[in-house]
Amino acid sequence: MKLSYKWLSEYLELNIAPKDLAEKIERTAVEVDSVRRLDDKLKKIVVGHTLEVVDHPDSDHLHIVQVEVGEEEPIQIVCGAPNIAADQDVIVALHGSRIKDNVKIKRSKMRGVPSNGMICALQEIGFDDSVVPKEFVDGIYVFPADSEVKPGDSVMEALGMDDDIIDTSVTPNRGDMFSMNGNVHEIAAILDQKATFEERKVEETGNSANAEISVDVVNPEFAPVYKMRVVNEVKVTSSPFWLQVKLMKAGVRPINNVVDVTNYIMLKYGQPLHAFDQTTLGTDISVDAAGPNVTFTTLDGVERKLRPDDLVIKSSDTPIALAGVMGGMDSEISNQTTDVVLEAAIFDPIMIRKTARYHVLHSEAAMRFERGIDYSSLQTALDEASEMIREIAGGFVMSDTVIGNDTKINLTEVNVKLSRINKILGTNLERSEVEHIFDRLGFESVFSNDQFTITIPLRRWDIAIEADILEEVARIYGYDNLPSTLPSSGSTVGRLSANQRLMRETRNVLEGLGLTQAMSYGLTTLEKAQRFTQAESDKLVKVDWPMTKDHEALRMSLISGLLDDVAYNQARSVSNVALYEQGRIFEKTTDDVQPMETEHLAGVIAGSLMSKAWNTKNQDVDFYQVKGIVDQYLHNLGLTGNITYRANHDLNSLHPGRTADVLVNDEVIGFIGQVHPELAKQLKISETYVFELDFTKIMELPKNIQHYDAVSKYPVITRDVAMLVDNDISNQSILDVMNSTKQKYLVDIKLFDVYAGNHLPSGKRSMAYQLTYQDQNETLQESVVNNEFDELQMALQTQLNATIR
Asked: Residue 229 — left, alpha, or beta (φ > 0 → left; ψ -120 to 50 → alpha)?
């Protein structure tokens, strides 16, 4: 919020420099973005009165203007503004002056005509385009008649630019500081002063407003408080000059005297108000959800399709305002308005937040409703706004307030012990010191038996528990005044946990195998989130309010993010990509709890793992290389279980004939496979292989702490066996049979040949294995090996109907 130092001075005795005040606010309350002097580096800019305006003889848009600037003689200025005219009070930058961005104005000739200065727009002396009155956006600024300026007066003083603006960044918990009221009370506490905050009383005349309109709040939770007042026979014109200046310095564009009053009250009390034209409003007002298939044109001229849950103000079931966010075109205040209905309310902050975010309408009103409104100041703000409109725009305020809902809330009481305060803050504060802090904050307190009972005013709705009180005492007492002590604790040996060590070992192994670590974003599209997973679609975790369409859901697999990296690299002529990622995937459990987070490990390889060289041919990665990487990784972990692989034809987004589950002790912990060619074509990537493992399960599996196998000094004996088997018999089935024969000295099995085709029976293939036998303790005898080998062949013949060749 932009705080005017001069406006604050109306309520406080500010015997402190603006920058020092800002430093105290930042140290004690909220962050300060900047402190800016409005007339900084501006020089020799005065009020001028135009005496004569004639067209430039050599231009179709320039004018020659005679301007009185408080000197003995008028000066001549050539001006191109479309709204220049005689008998106007304008902004004049004299010869040698400095305007915005430190631009120096000099005497010059414009198409042969001397010009001794410049007639300025507000933007040219530092005002932002968004706060300039609309009638002066594209031209020079003309002082209104009630400004009472004279030629030669300082423009900086006339426009209140001899002021400092403290721009604060209000945190969500301190919505009270979105108002002058809240800031005045906060600064009064910081400076140990009493605020003299002025409130105006309303002067009522005429009949009861309840005879004019009625209000129905359909659900009390939509609007805990909803009130209206009626002001009749007003004349809508420009606001008084002082009000326009105040609003522009606060970052608000002046509109007209009615709307400007509502904005002024919003800045003063933090209570957003909305003004309706009673002629177009109707008599039956309701506050309700929009319902299905409703369109509505807001004040910015945009037709919007409303969500069914958007909160709206209705007149005879027709939307007239987007509650708490923006009004509608049909009921806006115009120069023809004579009767005004003022609305003051407290709306459900969550509904306002959702509406503002969905429609991208983060208005000043919406920001305040989202953070909370002071229940105690609503009626005061509504009454004062009505009285100001009566004074500024004429007319009269009808008696009584129209009430749709008026929820009363109790004051919050918090108990805290004095000893507790001193213990937590490390201080030795006396009772009187703490009571004085509460008094500065405007909190009522009662002390008994070492305990304070503090009553919190409604304007501080952020305070509810003991910790809040402790924080209030600490910040008003001064963080710099708290004693500094070193923490006391016993020394501990720093080391990694077992899971942390496993994570580091994982990185070392995979990077040693040629992969590079990558990190992907956890949010992705709905389509990508469900790829490479067999989880049901109802497990998908969707984001209620995604930043973009690319971030609508939490990932259920790590592979989609890695494939995006592959596509990115290959689009830039990097064909060989080998990446891995260790991160979390998310699955919904039930609607009322947080999603389940599971650590996963994934890898993706495209192209070749080995760069082409003079002695190395380029060989693209295949299924068995990726399987070897996974197998080596699991072996290095020292898992005690039996690691096997099983074909999987049903995993979406993967090639049905080149995909396998990874199992440990018959429990699936992941998969390996080739990205489906259709998906690869869609992503514009080459043939790519992936793997993904459930890292949480891997961390829980039993492991050998020491899994080193001593190298035997005794020789090995090898035997080769070739067999004819049916095509549907897999390599894993053959290995299972070989291992099931409980071979005592069989230490290794390798498949070295597979053949199917000519000279073999239909539906058959030949598979040849090399078997390695070794005894760790002595030289192995030929007869022992022959016995085991014969037993193995017999098992293959009987269990698989294999023909030994």
From this structure: beta
| Cβ-based neighbours of 9, under 8 Å, separated by 6 or more | none
Architecture per CATH, 717-804: 2-Layer Sandwich (3.30)
**Residue environment code for 285-322, b if the CB has 16+ CB neighbours within 10 A, otherwise e:** bbbbbbeeebebebbeeeebebbeebbbbbbeeebbbb
Question: Beta strand 63-68 with 43-55: parallel, antiparallel or unpaired?
Answer: antiparallel
Does this chain's domain 2-38+164-191 share its CATH topology with 412-480? yes
* Residues of the binding site: 462, 468, 471-472
pLDDT at 236 over 60: yes
Contact criterion met (CB below 8 Å) for 183 and 18:
no
What sign has the CA pseudo-torsion 365, 366, 367, 369? positive
Q: How is residue 594 annotated by DSSP?
A: P
The DSSP code for 210 is G
Looking from the CA of 504 toward its CB, the CA atoms found within 13 Å total 7
Give the residue ranges of the annotated binding site for Mg(2+).
462, 468, 471-472
**Residue in 657, 656, 680 with CA at minimum distance from that of residue 606:** 680
User: Is-contact 423 465, C-beta < 8 A?
Assistant: no
Q: What are the sequence ranges of the domains in the chain?
A: 2-38+164-191, 43-158, 204-406, 412-480, 498-700, 717-804
Q: Is the pLDDT at 574 greater than 60, yes or no?
A: yes
Is the pLDDT at 617 greater than 90? The verdict is: no
- Site of tokens 């009615």: 258
Question: Phi first, then psi: what are they for 222, rounded to 5°?
Answer: -65, -45
DSSP-assigned beta bridge partners for residue 660: 647, 672
d(CA 492, CA 487): 14
How does the average pLDDT of the chain come out, rounded? Answer: 92
- Reported as a single tens digit per residue, the pLDDT across 474-516 is 999 999 999 988 777 777 777 888 888 899 999 999 999 999 9
Length of the chain in terms of residues written: 805
pLDDT of residue 739: 86
Contact 401, 382 (CB under 8 A): yes
* DSSP type of residue 639: B
What's this model's pTM, rounded to 2 decimal places? 0.77
Residue 775: helix, strand or coil by DSSP?
coil
State the Cα–Cα distance between residues 155 and 379, nearest whole angstrom. 38
Question: 624: Cβ–Cβ under 8 A, 6 or more apart, which residues?
Answer: none
**What is the CATH topology of the domain spanning 204-406?**
Phenylalanyl-tRNA Synthetase; Chain B, domain 3 (3.50.40)
Cβ atoms of 9 and 195 within 8 Å: the answer is no
